[in-house]
């Protein structure tokens, strides 16, 4: 149902009674091919980033809703090299000013002392979840994704050794968990949502994952960046 009584640039999370878990699903991409399991091995991932194919990301920018100046940021896409590779994700604490309570990659705004996007992503991952650099091998980066809050995010993809140990920053991170890469890269799990806000169409992805009895509802920027990774791996 369209929402016409609010400004067009209102953040989705500020809409009356908005809950991404209950929003109507307008499409599921089960018709698209999933990458073969062999394509998701550490060796194949490393080779793909070393010699990337011609491809285009599917989604790169959200509707702007903030008047703040644009800021560079980076996130780490940490792929744990288990027999069945997994991706580390975090649940942000509810008191944070941006994306509070949401599922996210470890990461954040670039500091002046950071030398590049990889430096930002690794520093933030260490600050947020205690991931030590010695367990991490950066293999590449994805195109930037610009959020409605004006962060220009560079996703840094890395392989993480399974013997890593996490120590969460309780102020920023409520929880950290792993999701099988094969699950995240299967488009049959990619749900499309659409809502008309103030006369303009807003589209986003979600990738719900049941972690035991706990639903990990991945949506918004994190789901979009995972979708772009899927497009990269299947190009």
Short summary:
By secondary structure, the chain is α+β, with helices and mostly antiparallel strands.
Report on this structure:
- This protein is α+β, with helices and mostly antiparallel strands and 235 residues long.
- It has a single domain, classed as Alpha-Beta Complex (Nucleoside Triphosphate Pyrophosphohydrolase), CATH 3.90.79.
- Helices cover 17% and strands 33% of the residues.
- Strands 2, 3, 4, 5, 6, 7, 8 and 9 form an eight-stranded mixed β-sheet that branches.
- β11 and β12 form a beta hairpin.
- The longest helix is centred in the last third of the chain and has 15 residues, at 220-234.
- The model is unreliable at 96-100 (pLDDT under 50).
List the helices and strands and how they pair.
Elements: E1 25-28, H1 42-50, E2 71-80, E3 86-92, E4 103-104, E5 107-109, H2 117-129, E6 136-141, E7 145-146, E8 151-160, E9 173-180, H3 181-184, E10 191-197, E11 200-211, E12 214-219, H4 220-234
Parallel strand pairs: 2-8
Antiparallel strand pairs: 1-10, 2-3, 2-5, 3-4, 3-9, 6-8, 7-8, 10-11, 11-12
Number of contiguous helices: 4
Question: Which regions have little confidence, pLDDT < 50, spanning 5+ residues?
Answer: 96-100
**Oligomeric composition of the shown chains:** single chain
Shape, principal axes of CA atoms: globular
Give me the secondary-structure category. Answer: alpha+beta
Main sheet, how many strands, which sense, barrel?
Answer: 8 strands, mixed
Number of strands: 12
How many domains in all? 1
Beta fraction of the residues? 25-35%
Gyration radius over CA: 17 Å
C-alpha end-to-end distance: 35 Å
CATH architecture: Alpha-Beta Complex
N to C succession of SSEs: EHEEEEHEEEEHEEEH
């Amino acid at each position: 149902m369209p929402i016409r009584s609010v400004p067009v640039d209102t953040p989705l999370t500020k809409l009356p009674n908005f809950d991404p878990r209950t929003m109507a699903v307008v499409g599921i991409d089960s018709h698209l091919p999933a990458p073969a399991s062999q394509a998701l091995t550490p060796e194949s991932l490393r080779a793909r980033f070393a010699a990337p194919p011609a491809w285009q990301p599917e989604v790169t920018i959200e509707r702007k809703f903030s008047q703040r100046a644009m800021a560079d940021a980076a996130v780490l896409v940490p792929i744990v090299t288990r027999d069945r590779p997994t991706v580390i994700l975090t649940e942000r604490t509810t008191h944070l000013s941006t994306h509070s309570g949401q599922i996210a990659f470890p990461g954040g705004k670039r500091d002046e002392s950071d030398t590049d996007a990889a430096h930002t992503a690794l520093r933030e991952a260490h600050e947020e979840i205690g991931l030590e650099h010695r367990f991490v091998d950066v293999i590449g980066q994805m195109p930037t994704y610009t959020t409605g809050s004006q962060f220009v995010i560079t996703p840094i993809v890395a392989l993480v050794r399974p013997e890593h140990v996490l120590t969460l920053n309780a102020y920023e991170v409520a929880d950290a968990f792993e999701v099988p890469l094969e699950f995240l890269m299967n488009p049959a799990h990619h749900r499309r949502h659409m809502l008309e806000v103030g006369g303009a169409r807003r589209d986003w992805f979600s990738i719900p994952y049941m972690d035991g009895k706990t639903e990990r509802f991945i949506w918004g920027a994190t789901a979009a960046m995972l979708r772009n990774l899927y497009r990269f791996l299947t190009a």
